[in-house]
């Protein structure tokens, strides 16, 4: 993650705030969610592979992609699914990935705990 | 290829499996997984939906308080997470510290009423006897300041609390540029909306503080709407409980 942030510089998105809605606190939900996200991660990296011009960046992205795929297979095995069910993985494009992530509502607004207006009550 | 790697039957027993190269040395030291709580971390969560906090993890248990999504200061209402329990019906409950009287009250709220967890690694220890506040990151002190606390008539409560919000833009410089609202409540001061919440703030009148020659921001026992010379004087030093007074942060 640090390496990616260094590469992206100011283009990196801000650190999001998450609300996993209890899926991280239930083993069955956690496994299913992990399968979905590891599969999605692998597909997302694959979907961008042809858009990377820099050989150095491509090498870095591929090295991460293969690890994502290992994670995906591992999680699928733990959840009782076939680890590698197809001979060819389908890539997913950016808008597809964003739509799927948005549909989970796991990325939540950061709670605002600072009040910047003058308090009504004191001074 | 499969036969060669398998090293036997397809090509005969005389075919040897090739030696695989040794795995490369890892480029990173990956530490063993550790629980988030290690090192004095505290977990908090916003109240996503208004909910009742119960005395036990059951809807049938007594209601301690109704938790709203906003504080009286119109910031997101947060609670300090102390633990979890999955009920027999599968429903997940979260044990939280509550901003209610009597202080140190805790309760159980449905997990579904809370948002995502946040973690802080700092805590503030307020020593009411020595009149010193110490900010710890993990177990390491990173800031220390002389403080004033509530007058004897308005004693600063003891116990474990959490920071609920940050308030800025005070018109009066007496309160300094920033105040922290806590979950602690005063049983004697009630002129703050929803009762006497305890705050920590600076001041432009450090001479009011004990040890005023020291340069430091001040902590103040009680935040109220009383006049500016009221609540931030040094109070009678009180023996503090064995445990830190204020824990957590925002």
Task: Please explain how this structure is put together.
The complex is a heterodimer of chains A (123) and B (250). Chain A is mainly alpha-helical and 123 residues long. Helices cover 54% and strands 5% of the residues of chain A. A two-stranded antiparallel ribbon of chain A has the order 1-2. The model of chain A has no long low-confidence stretch (mean pLDDT 87). In chain B, a hairpin with an 8-residue loop joins strand 5 (92-97) and strand 6. The A-B interface holds A 17-22, 25-26, 108, 111-119, 121-123 and B 46, 48, 73-76, 78, 84, 92, 111-112, 115-116, 118, 164-172, 174-175, 192-193, 223-225, 228, 250. Strand 3 of chain A pairs parallel with strand 11 (163-168) of chain B, so a sheet runs across the interface.
Topology:
The complex is a heterodimer of chains A (123) and B (250).
Chain A: H1 2-8, E1 17-18, H2 27-49, H3 55-79, H4 94-104, E2 107-108, E3 114-115
Antiparallel strand pairs in A: 1-2
Helix pairs in contact in A: 2-3
Chain B: H1 2-6, E1 42-46, E2 51-54, E3 63-67, E4 78-86, E5 92-97, E6 106-110, E7 118-120, E8 122-127, E9 132-137, E10 140-146, E11 163-168, E12 178-186, E13 196-201
Antiparallel strand pairs in B: 1-4, 1-7, 2-3, 4-5, 5-6, 8-9, 9-10, 11-12, 12-13
